[in-house]
Amino acid sequence: MENTEKKASNFIEEFIDADLASGRTEKVHTRFPPEPNGYLHIGHAKALCIDFGIARKYGGLCNLRFDDTNPTKEDTEFVLAIQNDIHWLGYDWANLYYASDFFPRLYEIACDMIRRGVAYVDDQSAEEMRLNRGTLTTPGVNSPYRDRSVEENLDLFERMKNGEFPDGSRVLRAKIDMSAPNVLLRDPTMYRILRHHHHRTGDQWCIYPMYDFQHPIQDAIEGISHSLCSLEYEIHRPLYDWMVEQAGFTQHPPRQIEFARLNIANTVMSKRYLRRLVEEHYVAGWDDPRMPTLVAMRRRGYPAAAIRDFIERVGVAKADSVVENALLEHCVRESLGDIAPRAMAVLDPIKVTFVNWPDGQVDEVEMENHPDHPEMGARTLHFTKHAYIEREDFMEEPPKKFFRLAPGREVRLKGAYIIKCEDVVKDENGNVVELLCSVDLTSKSGCEGANRKVKGTLHWLSDMDARPIEVRLYDSILLPEAEGVEEEAPAEDGEEAAAPAKDFISRLNPDSLKVISSLAEPIICDAEVGAKFQFLRMGYFCKDPDSTAEKSVYNRTVSLKDSWAKASKA
User: Active-site residues: which are they?
Assistant: First the structure.
């Protein structure tokens, strides 16, 4: 009870504090219940952090439960991936359950509900049931099979389980009220016939429980105190409570509390649509760094701490809203800024020759690995007659306030010398292909007499240190949505709400991935897969598993420009 003395920081905690104080709840016990039909995305991370975070704050427990009641889409691959994502985010579960573990008990509970006259077998087709359900303004019509005897319903339900009837020919329905204002209470389906190999139970079952039957009852079986879910399930709450009560769990029943989903601008937030991107090969896989899946964000270089920070900043609200991706990127920058060593890579190189540097002479340049962390040490680079800088750092006819390199202008090369552009070399088409520069030999950084100031400082690489790398630059996978596009209603059977109803394929950004050949210093190329660096002036990058001994591959995690920080200070 001492936890109730902690100040609640959101409405969920206010409910929990009240339940602990009243005795409705003795110990906080939550659960994270994904369906193993895809990889977790950033939207799931909000529910995950809330479920596990609430349990952690109150010294309680959080179960991981796989709601594997639809064998047509579920796979062990997704089970393992979800477990990896949870651990990556820094959480662990008290108990691991599968809905399929409870199929026998759920079946017995359904039989008991038949015996008590609150469930019946319906022979109507799906279309007939839809037409007879009514609308928001008109009541439904009772099924002609609603008043079957208990004995007949038990017999038919057992025969459904034994595989005597074709798929879709019969369902088990709860007997509630076909005139209820909440259409979900109009005799919802509890079981359907579905012959499909299950990833755990094989072909043992040919009937499977529906989400609105299985989910609340399993919450009660596990002793869940608070069933935390997203806002689209608010309308399901009366049915949730009805199922728990009818299943006989009247002592300390779970309380369902709904919170707003996480919606990020121009981001696909539905597993169904993400699965389409994968299966139709619009992306390279679930871990394609353009995807909003956690495995993709991990591959792109997002730290787990940044995800948790983002979720905390978004907060827990009762109303849906859209969050700008700039906030997520801001959190990533803040996290990486402290931990990522600095190094130099030239993404679009142009050659520089130092006309007054002696042939064959090599000078050593010491570079710090992190300006705020001297314990990270330093590394040695080399200054030679030939080097490379970014093509965009040179202009033949620069505008005002262009403080980089131009004919007759000086810049400092980071940690090295001041150089001056004396001339350029052009190809037959008039394009500049090489810069001829002089070096101020007295201007080496850190040396006596090197205090002369110039306005521009550039990153660079000597030909001695430059190694080839492949760089992958990412942009939003979706183009901005046109105004007036409606969103699709939440799906049935426990699936999450979908992405906008308009075919989102038409909104795919053709420039969401750009692959370029670049150059980088040895520390970048010799790093292990997953290593993160700030490429000076270019952004944060992470070494990709596609890297080989011959060529490193780096994904740009995020650029250095922080539009969120700038806007928040305005």
Answer: 35, 261, 271
For 343, counting Cβ atoms within 10 Å of its Cβ (0-12 exposed, 13-18 middle, 19+ buried), the class is: buried
Helix, strand or coil, per DSSP, at residue 307: helix
Note whether 173 and 120 are within 8 A (CB). yes
Per-position DSSP letters for 411-465, written without gaps between them:
EEETTS-EEEEEEEEE-TTS-EEEEEEEEETT--TTSTT-----S-EE--EETTT
Question: Are β-strands 349-354 and 345-346 bridged in parallel, bridged antiparallel, or unpaired?
Answer: unpaired
Distances (CA, A) of 94 to 2, 97, 300, 333, 520: 21, 10, 30, 33, 45
Residue 468 neighbours by CB distance under 10 Å: 12
Amino acid code (one letter) for 189? T
Q: Are 323 and 314 in contact (CB under 8 A)?
A: yes
Specify the pLDDT at position 4. Answer: 43
Positions of E strands within 83-158: 96-98, 119-122
463-476 pLDDT, tens digit each: 999 999 999 999 99
Lookup: tokens for 527:
């790093």
Sign of CA dihedral 225, 230, 234, 238: negative
- Please write the tens of the pLDDT for every residue from 42-78: 999 999 999 999 999 999 999 999 999 999 999 999 9
| Helix/strand/coil for 345 | strand
Sheet containing strand 432-440, strands side by side? 457-458, 410-413, 418-426, 432-440, 349-354, 386-390, 461-462
Distances (CA, A) of 269 to 78, 277, 304, 544: 17, 12, 19, 24
The Cα–Cα gap between 51 and 220 comes to 16
Cβ of 324: how many Cβ atoms within 10 Å?
14
